[in-house]
Amino acid sequence: MSLHRPRLLGATILCLSAALCACAARASGPSVELKGQHFGIEIAADDASRERGLMFRDSMPADHGMLFVFDRPEVQQFWMKNTHIPLDILYFDQNYRLVSMSQRTPPCHSMGNDCPVYPSSGPAQYVLELNAGTADKLGVTAGDELKVTR
Questions:
Q1: Counting beta carbons within 10 angstroms of the beta carbon of residue 90, is it exposed (0 to 12), middle (13 to 18) or buried (19 or more)?
Q2: Cα 147 to Cα 150: distance, rounded to the nearest angstrom
Q3: To the nearest whole number, what is the mean pLDDT of the chain?
Q4: C or N: which end of the chain has fewer Cβ atoms within 10 Å?
Q5: Which CA distances in Å does 24 have to 19, 21, 27, 28?
Q6: Alpha-carbon distances of 139 from 12, 34, 79, 89, 95, rounded to whole Å
Q7: CATH fold of 30-149, please?
Q8: What pLDDT shows up at residue 39?
């Protein structure tokens, strides 16, 4: 047996262990509950992560979403620049109550800075993006509460 094989085997085991730990951490990571349905989320709480959002992604698991967190409630404006998947954009106030939503918002990956803007109808501090059609499936309406766990 060559000296390289044990090293290769050790490196493979180390990589697999790291991948399993990452999966376990993600499974127990932050989540939200809306209308009794749980979603694993990524959190965008700084300018860079909010700006990037879900750009350039070709898919998102059905039980997954992205929660955008802002410092204070104000009218939020989202667009779908460089976004490849249609989304439901749900705007929540400082008390996690649904203010408004843009359902089945189409991707905009070919118009550059000319993509349309989708504003909230009132002040929002949290914005949840889910796969398009999810809000309809859940029967989401204004005033519904979002529960966040971290």
A1: buried
A2: 10
A3: 86
A4: N
A5: 9, 5, 5, 6
A6: 46, 10, 23, 14, 20
A7: Jelly Rolls (2.60.120)
A8: 98
Residues 69, 110, 99, CA angle at the centre, nearest 5°? 30
Q: Please, what is the Cα angle at 71 between 84 and 117, to 5 degrees?
A: 35
Q: How far apart are CA 82 and CA 21, in angstroms?
A: 31
The pair phi, psi for residue 57, each rounded to 5°, is -90, 140
Query: Collapsing DSSP states into helix, strand and coil, what is residue 33?
Result: strand
Specify whether the backbone of 104 is left (phi greater than 0), alpha (psi in -120 to 50) or beta.
Answer: left
- How big is the chain, counted in residues? 150
d(CA 49, CA 43): 8
pLDDT means over runs of 10, the chain (150 residues): 44 40 54 97 96 94 97 96 96 98 93 90 98 98 94
